Amino acid sequence: MPVTSPTTAPPATHLISRPPPALAAGLLLVILVVAFESSAVGTVMPRIAADLGGLQLYGWASSAFMLASLLGAMLTGLLTDRRGVAWGAAFSLALFGLGLLVLGLAASMPVVIAGRLIEGVGVGGLNALPFVVISAAYRDEAKARMLAAVSSMWLVPGLVGPLLASVLTAQFSWRAVPWSLVGLLVLAAPLCLHPLRSLPPLATGGSQKRILWPTLGLMVAFTALIEGLRRPDALGIPVALAGLMGLGLSARPLFPRGLWSLRPGLPASLALRGFAAFALMGQGSFVTLSLREVHHLPLAVVGLSISVGGLSWTLGAWLQAHLEKTFGPASRPARIRYGLLGITGGLLLTGLGMTGALPYPVIFLGGLIAGIGMGTAYNSNSLHAMSLVPPAQAGQLSSQLANIEVLMVALSAGISGALVTRIHPLEQALTYVVIMNLVASLIPWVAARRLAHR
Q1: pLDDT tens for residues 210-223?
Q2: Where would I find the Major facilitator superfamily (MFS) profile domain in this sequence (predicted)?
């Protein structure tokens, strides 16, 4: 499924009056490469954990990746400020490739997590770049189309990536998946970088430096929280509480006040995005685990869940773009509500299949419904949030929208991983995971009622 990484804060004015087609092509190619990694590695991750005996660390493979993307976007933003967008992209591509190499050579689950950590730094920067440039270089009437185009870049990788990953694993090894992605990256890197060379540095007024330390604090606090939840001894509770307090303190400089209380206006919009991501995207990696370990299905079928998610999300994104063009901004609240209905209903069906209460095909049906709902509600909410802030704050908003998503997805995956570690059998642990995410999917319903205020 499409995942947005934290963005740097671009200037409010347009960098270029008429963005050339090559610029859009370069931005979309960046997303295409990241999408292939997401679908392929996501398909084989249950196999990796099983082969290396690391099921108890399964959640960290996702959480480390997501958290590292926060740092990656920050570092790439600093480099982009000083040297230009192409330099930031080159830095991110290099780390992305290094992380894939480490993953392919991993002999233990901790090394897998290290590889995912390095990958995350690279992907954080790569996913940031398109949204930075869209916000800065494209006019309002083109933003909805570009957002839909970005989402559509997940379509082909979502359909083909899982199948290719399962074939490579069956014929060779799961290690062939990250190694083949390195080859794709080498071929794609020049095409990604060339159109970005024409863009000047994006001055952010030092905003990246101001939030670098809070971001590092957030990562440390998050690690303490999840490790505390995973620990069965007496230290677990105090470590988790310390991490929770640190998480709250570190997040304050990154988001507007009133986020957690769903204050009307922008805080409610950010909360809607965050909890929707927590519920659907956080549960996504455990859908593949359920298909592999509970239903004992081959990787080709496991990967189908990723394909369904990517396809349905893209359909939802294009649907909202069509409705935006036809009915205008006035239809956004209704699109958001119907999208949230699809998310909650789809999660319920998916959860019943994950736990074994219903046959596994309902997982795919639930994923289809939830993905369409997410694609519709997510981009509609993003457009609504953009309408709430003046142009001078567009870059800051891009960062906040992306950061809340990354934080909440990592939090969901981390807590779910702790539940899998502490609760046995796996079916029972997944039951708690499903309940947690269903409850989280209801919070955006409350936030949606508070979006209309500035």
Answers
A1: 777 888 888 889 88
A2: 23-452
